[in-house]
Design goal:
Elements lengths: L12 H4 L3 E5 L8 H7 L7 E5 L7 E2 L2 E4 L11 E4 L6 H10 L5 E3 L10 H17 L3 E2 L5 E4 L4 E4 L11 E8 L2 H8 L8 E6 L8 H9 L4 E8 L7 H12 L3 E5 L4 H11 L6 H11 L2 E2 L3 H13 L7 E6 L2 H13 L9 H10 L10 E2 L8 H13 L3 E8 L7 H15 L3 E5 L7 H8 L3 E4 L2 H16 L9 H8 L6 E3 L1 H10 L7 E4 L2 H11 L3 E6 L12 E5 L2 H18 L7 E6 L6 E9 L3 E8 L4 H4 L2 E5 L4 H10 L17 H18 L3 E12 L2 E4 L2 E5 L2
Parallel strand pairs: 1-2, 1-5, 2-4, 5-6, 6-7, 10-11, 10-12, 12-13, 13-14, 15-16, 15-17, 17-18, 18-19
Antiparallel strand pairs: 3-4, 8-9, 8-11, 20-30, 21-24, 22-23, 22-24, 25-26, 25-28, 26-27, 28-29, 28-30
């Protein structure tokens, strides 16, 4: 499957940054979608036309009105269709004939319904728009807002009340209501540049829209709310564009649970996909995933304001000792460093803070700061100047409408002069007013209404500026091994699977087939004791469940007895299974066991799984996912993300595994999986045992499509 390239920003300029706009289907009723849309254009300096045959030749809502799209001036940039579904395709034809730059389509009732013929109708609309070269926003969308040029191409009312300066954050959402909910932050002074809603993504999807915003000079970060995509691999391309532009994308995946995923499908007609695969794709794309809607704009706003960090530590300064403890708890939970002040910093703090405060980190300034602004400035400047601190966190515990805005306004130039951000943790239940507004309006202060979200945002900020390991590549050996796989719809059990892994360059434990007890003994004599016997059956994937594995067999007698026991277990527990005998292999030394897995995801292609392996793999579910192929550096990052990583790193005096060799083996496995491509249904090594001289595959399985 070939991924459709992301549209260029220039190809979407006329639609999303128009110089002229026409609204089709405007009625005289002020609450209608068309009337609301045209009202939202009152701050736009370009040409605006209404389209309604009833008022043709006159004015409607203060704008010139024509009878149809055919009567519009040639080459109108952006047309908004406020009409039911049946009129959309004819309007597209007329708009293309007039040289229109793009259409925004509110109409619903297409592929998001359960009616197959509506999905066919939507696909026909998409193909026709592509053939005509007219980009479509929607269908089933809420429109867009270009806050730079004051284009409110949306039916949500009162856009003109959003007076915040343009800039900062771009918003892209499949859900129109959620997109506009974020956009309303501009009412309180939050700087935003653009908001676009994809709806069904008939033509343009969230990747096209976000790429357009990345090209806007005013945009410094993007808040992205995604339900699903037809081709999730476009996320990787978008992530590369964001990294090249130096503009982070903060992303929230909607539809993570089973019920939510079904709702997402019915909402936009897009596949929601597996949650773990989405998270893996976001990581590969370098996007910063948040877990809840409240975190999306807070984090994106912080990323838009904060300069690159010059240190790793977090400094906490607050007039409340309890708030300092709260902040420290959440910082430690996120793994953030809380270094104690440098001697010079501590000297300033100690001289300024009363003896019932604390000149440490967290720094308890005490309530005395309310009566001594000079003391506050001295302490904040000292914390900001400390080279250990990348950011200073200031919990606000009391909102005084008279003094709090002044305090916020006084902090902003301190942060700007230091070139470091100050994060405000807004703790009061007095949520609105001049205090929060002053923070939002500042270019160097960032507002959070949750300490947990604040510290998570700082962790993501550091992560973004750390960069990410490069992606992997498919090697010639992996391609050759994939080409050598047998044709057809086939399952390769342990012996054949390990041979395929070995051909790809993976270390695999050699074995021998034995159809009889005597043959098993002969093989054991040849390989060397102690040995392992495993049931050899194409119908039994989990051998331990039928008593099909015997370990640490020290001699011929033990081998003979084990063979008989395995055959008996197969007859009792899997009476219909085909049994070819046993596999004999030398008993491996003990070491940590991992599972490596790969499968095809319908949206992201070949996905890779690494986790704690052996018979307990399904119990603990300690796994990391990525998109194949991965580099050795990415493989090592996956290993370090596991909760069980200490087992690989010399836990309680155990020998450390060869991490470099293990990462290379994982990269090799991923390259092989990616080389197989769509033919791969799934493949697995379990366990991959980690020995002092390197990892070795003890068991394997592959399922291939024709």
């Amino acid at each position: 499957m070939t991924t459709t390239p992301i549209r260029s920003a220039e190809s979407l300029r006329r639609l999303l940054a128009p110089r002229s706009v026409a609204v089709v289907g405007v009625s005289a009723e002020a609450t209608s979608f068309g009337a609301r849309t045209i009202a939202n254009l009152r701050g736009f300096a370009g040409d605006v036309f209404a389209v309604n045959p009833k008022y043709a030749g006159g004015e409607l809502h203060g704008y010139p009105c024509v009878g149809s799209i055919d009567d519009l001036p040639v080459a109108i940039d952006s047309v908004v269709l406020c009409m039911p579904r049946p009129g959309v395709l004819p309007s597209l034809e007329m708009a293309a004939a007039r040289g229109v730059g793009g259409l925004t389509i509110y109409a619903s009732g297409f592929g998001e319904t359960d009616l197959p013929e509506r999905a066919v109708e939507e696909e026909a609309l998409r193909l026709r728009a592509r053939a005509l070269g007219v980009p479509l926003l929607g269908v089933n969308c809420l429109g867009f807002v270009n806050h730079v040029t004051r284009v409110g191409a949306t039916f949500m009312p009162d856009y003109y009340k959003m007076t915040a300066p343009a800039g900062g954050v771009g918003v892209v959402s499949q859900s129109g209501a959620l997109g506009y909910a974020l956009m309303q932050a501009a009412e309180r002074g939050f700087a935003m540049c653009h908001m676009a809603t994809a709806g069904n993504s008939t033509d343009l999807d969230i990747c096209d829209l976000a790429a357009f915003q990345l090209a806007m000079p005013e945009c410094r970060s993007i808040a992205l709310a995604v339900e699903g995509l037809r081709d999730g691999r476009r996320l990787i391309e978008l992530g590369e564009m964001a990294r090249a532009a130096g503009k982070p994308i903060v992303v929230l995946k909607l539809g993570r649970g089973e019920t939510g995923a079904r709702a997402a499908m019915s909402h936009t007609g897009s596949m929601a996909g597996a949650t773990a695969a989405w998270s893996a794709a976001f990581r590969r794309a370098g996007m910063l995933e948040v877990e809840d809607f409240d975190a999306l704009l807070e984090t994106a706003g912080f990323m838009a304001k904060a300069p690159p960090p010059r240190a790793r530590g977090v400094g906490i300064a607050t007039p409340s000792g309890g708030a300092g403890i709260l902040a420290a708890d959440h910082a430690e939970y996120q793994g953030l460093a809380l270094p104690q002040p440098a001697p010079a910093t501590e000297a300033v703090l100690r001289s300024a803070i009363p003896d019932f405060g604390s000149p440490r980190n967290p720094c308890d300034l005490t309530a005395q700061v309310a009566t001594n602004p000079a003391m506050f400035d001295a302490c904040m400047n000292a914390m900001l100047a400390d080279p250990q601190y990348a950011v200073v966190v200031m919990p606000v515990v009391y909102h005084n409408p008279a003094t709090t805005p002044l305090r916020m306004a006084a902090m902003a130039p301190l942060a700007a002069a230091a070139g470091k951000p100050i994060c405000i943790a807004w703790i009061p239940e007095s949520l609105e007013g001049a205090g929060p507004v002053a923070v939002d309006a500042s270019g160097s202060l960032s507002l959070f209404r949750s300490m947990r979200r604040l510290m998570k945002a700082i962790a993501l900020w550091l992560q973004w500026h750390d960069g990410q390991p490069t992606a992997g590549a498919i090697t010639d050996q992996a391609r050759a091994a994939a080409a050598g796989l047998p044709p057809g719809d086939i399952t390769l059990m342990e012996a054949e699977a390990k041979q395929a892994f070995a051909a790809a360059g993976l270390p695999a434990m050699p074995d021998a087939r034995a159809a009889t007890a005597a043959a098993a003994v002969a093989a054991a004599d040849r390989l060397g004791y102690p040995v392992v016997l495993k049931l050899d059956s194409p119908d039994v994937a989990h051998k331990t469940e039928v008593g099909g594995v015997a370990l640490n067999l020290a001699d011929a007698a033990a081998t003979t007895a084990a063979f008989a026991a395995i055959m008996d277990g197969a007859r009792r527990h899997a009476p219909t299974a085909r049994v070819d005998g046993v596999l004999v292999q030398r008993m491996a030394a003990r070491g940590p066991e991992l599972i490596l897995g790969a499968r095809q995801d319908p949206q992201f292609g070949t996905t890779l799984l690494v986790g704690l392996g052996g018979v307990q793999a399904e119990l603990w579910k300690d796994v990391a996912l990525d998109i194949a192929p991965v580099s050795a550096a990415r493989a090592e990052a996956m290993l370090r993300s596991l909760k069980s990583f200490p087992l690989l790193d010399g836990f309680r005096g155990a020998a450390k595994v060869d991490l470099a060799a293990l990462a290379e083996a994982i990269a090799c496995f991923s390259a092989f999986a990616a080389a197989i491509g769509p033919r791969l249904e799934e493949m697995e090594i379990n366990p991959l045992v980690c020995l002092p001289d390197g990892p070795v595959a003890l068991d394997g399985l592959m399922r291939l499509n024709a």
